[in-house]
Write a structure and sequence with these properties.
This protein has 13 helices and five strands. A five-stranded parallel sheet has the order 2-3-1-4-5, with helices on both faces. It is globular and about 80 Å long. It binds adenosine monophosphate and magnesium ion.
C-alpha cells in the first residue's frame, strides 16, 4: 500500500480527527513484525538523501506538528539518524523571541527553509501561528484568519524554488497522551520534558482539534500535502513517516551527477601510480 496516498489529506477535505484511529497499525502485529521494513526504509532514506544532497537540484521541507507527547522528537531521531548530518538540519520553533515577534510571522520561517540539496525538518512550524496563536488568542481573529492564505502562498513560493514540502500531523489519543505524561513523571530521564503548560494545554484538546481540522481543510494542497499519521504506536508512526518520505523521494528520479572529469584517463593515472609505488617497494 502506498502510505502517501493512504494518509494524505485530499485538498479541501473536511477531516474529523475523532474518526481517525490513532492506534492503526496496518497489517503488522507489532514492532518486531515491522522491524525489517523499518530498517529497509531507513537505509533507503540514507541513500536518497545523499543523492538529493549531491545533485543539489531539489530540497525537502518536512513539517512535524502534534499535541504534547505526540512524538515529534522521537520521529526526528528516527528519521534523521538514517541520514548524513551533512545536508540535514532540524529547526525547532518556540514562542517567538522579541525580535521574531517584531517581524511578520513568516520571517523566522523563510530564513531557515531548506536550500537546494538540503533536507530540513521543522519541529513545530509556521502552523503554530494558526494553532497555539488561535487557541490562546495570542493575536486577534482578523490577524490569524488571514494567515492560511499567506501560508499557502509562502509554500507555493518554496515549491517554485524546487522545495518539496511534506507536512505530518502525529495523531495520538487522549488516553495515550495521559499514559505518556505518566511515563514522563516516572522516568527521571524523561522528566526534563515535562512542562507546566502540558496539563493546561490538555484541557484545550477540543480547541486544538478544531484548529487542526481547519489547517487540514485549508492548507493541504496537491503539492504541499498534510498527512495524518496514526501515532499511538511509536514504531508505526516512524515507519509511516519514513515510508512517505522515501516514496516521495523515489518519485523525484534522483541520480548521482555525471562525473565532470575523464574517468578513463584518471583510471590510467591510478594504474600508473600503483605501478610506480610497487616498483619502489
Ligand atoms: P516545545 O516544542 O515543547 O519546546 O514547546 C515550544 C512551545 O512554543 C510550545 O508551547 C509552542 O506552542 C510554542 N510556540 C511555538 N511557536 C509559537 C508561536 N508562533 N507563537 C506562540 N507560541 C509558539
Ligand atoms: Mg512540550
Amino acid at each position: 500500500m502506498n502510505y502517501g496516498e493512504r494518509f494524505r489529506v485530499r485538498p479541501g477535505a473536511r477531516i474529523v480527527l475523532q474518526e481517525i484511529d490513532p492506534a492503526f497499525k496496518d497489517h503488522y502485529d507489532g514492532h518486531k513484525d515491522a522491524a525489517d521494513e523499518l530498517e529497509h526504509c531507513r537505509a533507503r532514506l540514507g541513500e536518497l538523501q545523499e543523492m538529493l544532497y549531491v545533485e543539489r537540484k531539489h530540497s525537502l521541507l518536512i513539517c512535524l506538528q502534534a499535541l504534547d507527547t505526540g512524538g515529534k522528537d522521537g520521529t526526528i531521531q528516527h528519521c534523521l539518524s538514517a541520514m548524513n548530518p551533512q545536508g540535514c538540519r532540524v529547526q525547532a520553533f518556540r514562542q517567538p523571541s522579541a525580535e521574531e515577534a517584531a517581524h511578520d510571522f513568516l520571517w523566522r520561517i523563510h530564513r531557515v527553509a531548506p536550500a537546494r540539496g538540503e533536507i530540513v525538518i521543522f519541529n513545530r512550524s509556521h502552523y503554530e501561528d494558526v494553532l497555539v496563536v488561535r487557541v490562546h488568542n495570542l493575536a486577534p481573529r482578523e490577524v490569524w484568519s488571514r494567515r492560511y492564505d499567506r501560508i499557502n502562498a509562502f509554500e507555493q513560493g518554496c515549491i517554485e524554488h524546487d522545495t518539496h514540502i511534506l507536512k505530518f500531523y502525529l495523531h495520538i489519543s487522549s488516553d495515550e497522551q495521559l499514559a505518556r505524561f505518566k511515563a514522563r513523571l516516572e522516568d527521571p530521564a524523561k522528566q526534563w520534558k515535562i512542562s507546566e503548560a502540558d496539563y493546561a494545554e490538555r484541557k484545550r484538546w477540543d480547541d486544538y482539534r478544531a484548529a487542526y481540522e481547519e489547517v487540514f481543510a485549508r492548507c493541504s494542497t496537491e503539492q504541499a500535502p498534510w498527512f495524518i499519521i496514526p501515532a499511538n504506536h511509536k514504531w508505526f508512526r516512524n515507519l509511516a513517516v519514513a515510508r512517505i518520505v522515501v516514496e516521495h523521494l523515489e518519485g523525484l528520479g534522483l541520480r548521482y551527477p555525471k562525473p565532470t572529469v575523464d574517468i578513463a584517463r584518471i583510471r590510467r593515472e591510478y594504474h600508473a601510480a600503483r605501478e610506480a609505488t610497487a616498483r619502489k617497494s
